[in-house]
Amino acid sequence: MYVLGVETSCDETSVSIVENGKKVLANKVLSQIDIHKVYGGVVPEIASREHIKGITYVFEQAMNSAGLTYQEIGLIAVTQGPGLIGSLLIGINAAKVISLNFDIPIIGVHHIAGHIYANQLEHEMEFPLLCLVVSGGHTELILMREHFDFNILGQTQDDAVGEAYDKIARVLKLPYPGGPVVDKMAGLGKDVYSFPRPMIDSQDYNFSFSGLKSHVINFHHNLKQRDQEIDIKDFCASFQEAVTDVLVKKTVLAKREHQVKQVIVAGGVAANSGLRNKMKENIKDIPVFFPKMDFCTDNAAMIAAAGYYQYQKNQFNDGLTINGQSRLSLEV
Ligand code: KG4
Ligand code: ZN
Question: What value does the mean pLDDT of the chain take?
Answer without folding.
Answer: 96
